[in-house]
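[Meeting: bench + compute handoff]

Bench side (C.D.) handed over the final construct sequence. Compute side (W.E.) agreed to return the predicted structure before the next meeting so the bench team could plan truncations. Sequence as handed over:
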Amino acid sequence: QARPPSGPDYFALTECERRFDLDLTALHERYKSFMVQIHPDKLARRPADEQQELASRAATLTQAVGVLRDPAQRAKHLLELHGRPLGEEATGESVGAPFLAQMLDAREAVEEAKSEAELHRLDRDNDALVQTLSAALAGAFARRDLDEASRLTAQLQYLQRIGAEIRQRRE
């Protein structure tokens, strides 16, 4: 059941097309351009209320760019905009038993890795899965298959957690 989005449309705020496969370089350039316009040196002579408004817009834009740069957050935001918000935590049921078993094996492999080389290989393998899922997500959103997009977004969240565990072990 579709629900109206509860917050701002980060795609509109950043003047990006509402799609999963964004041009991140163009997003970064738009962000830099906006931030140059509201640099504190340029605002010094403006009234305090205008300075406050621009500071608020800058904070919102920074948040928008942060969400859009992260594939899982971008996918969750797209789902919200389509009225299909994904819960905070992806459930095993939403990703399927085979995928969940794969994630348990991956987590175990990370815990048992004994060398930097093993962790590097696990990180590379996880990144490849993230890329594959991201391509599938782009297709699901392009087809407006929101059930599939929800499932893939939940899977992507699991993969990102595995990636974070690998990076933590590598530190």
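W.E. noted at the follow-up: Residues 9 and 62 are 13 Å apart (CA to CA). C.D. will use this when planning the next construct.
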